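Chapter review. Work through the record for homoisocitrate dehydrogenase before attempting the end-of-chapter questions.
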Amino acid sequence: MAARTLRIGLIPGDGIGKEVIPAGRRILEALPASLGLKFEFIKLRAGFETFEQTGAALPDETVAILKSDCDGALFGAVSSPSTAVKGYSSPIVALRKKLDLYANVRPVKSVGGAANPIDMVIVRENTEDLYVKEEKTYDTPEGKVAEAIKRISQRASSRIATMAGEIALRRQKIRSAGSPSIHTSPLVTITHKSNVLSQTDGLFRSTAREALSAGRFTSVAVEEQIVDSMVYKLFRQPEAYDVIVAPNLYGDILSDGAAALVGSLGLVPSANVGEGFAIGEPCHGSAPDIMGQNIANPIATLRSAALMLEFLNEEEAAARIYAAVDANLEEGKLLSPDLGGKATTTEVLEDILRRL
Ligand code: ATP
Ligand code: MG
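Structure tokens for homoisocitrate dehydrogenase:
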């Protein structure tokens, strides 16, 4: 079988992004040759440091190379200055727009043997809702009033729900292949607040329902949950969820809440996904408090690399990475300080590479 070559953009960004992205590269390079995968890496710039050096947080060159030369990418983290800096805005937000990466996908999984086992994926719509950032402030006799547009479209709701359905099917396929899980059949939970926002969230709800009623999703159970009760249940009974699909704002909040359930931001991966393109990105930020000490947990990035591979249809390679990471966590001997251990970034990585 001819080897498939994947060209992967590497965007370390700022802070611990510079320490964890090289770990992501190492694990891809260490995948066994029998998988028939080869990698070419292209180093790309973005972030606050890039902004200070070049005047652009996301240089045009980075976007152009991602579009024309890459199959996927790994993105580290970018610092967000605590006070607004003129001309600076988040490069990952811009990148999602420019590449139409309409889904933000976050798997949240507990380590084997946890008291409350969790194995869910949150699929967050990434292009609209309140995050269209159309805000205005005006004066009235009673003082200032500020307003924001919440935009929900049929197109965006339909494609995000379809992706959630596909992910549910893929997870079921992986389970059928023998991968251990707390779930036995695929379930998608549609999250909304249509009892209050009958038009916007109402459209999300009905569109998602319709998309998930397509013939190929007959094996996928579909349920709905109002977002506030969802938060309650997410904390009380997290094992009940398989795939959650949500509009942008609720998805943002739910995914950070879910990350808290498994203990450390250093464990949780994400992917920004569009048509035929995926950027793996650890959920954590640039963590300036621990940068430069070689103690950042690389696992969120290793899992993000695996998640990127899943969306590039390399499920087996992804499964190898997940299994090596799980084995490290289950043994629990070489853990980074955020998990109560003493191991360095390098030691955690070496242990996982050995298990690969
Ligand atoms: P940013 O503005 O870039 O988001 P932040 O100060 O909010 O930076 P985060 O990266 O969001 O920092 O991290 C929040 C906390 O979690 C910090 O205390 C950080 O040290 C810790 N943390 C984040 N990522 C990791 C990691 N990979 N390993 C260990 N600890 C981490
Ligand atoms: Mg942060």
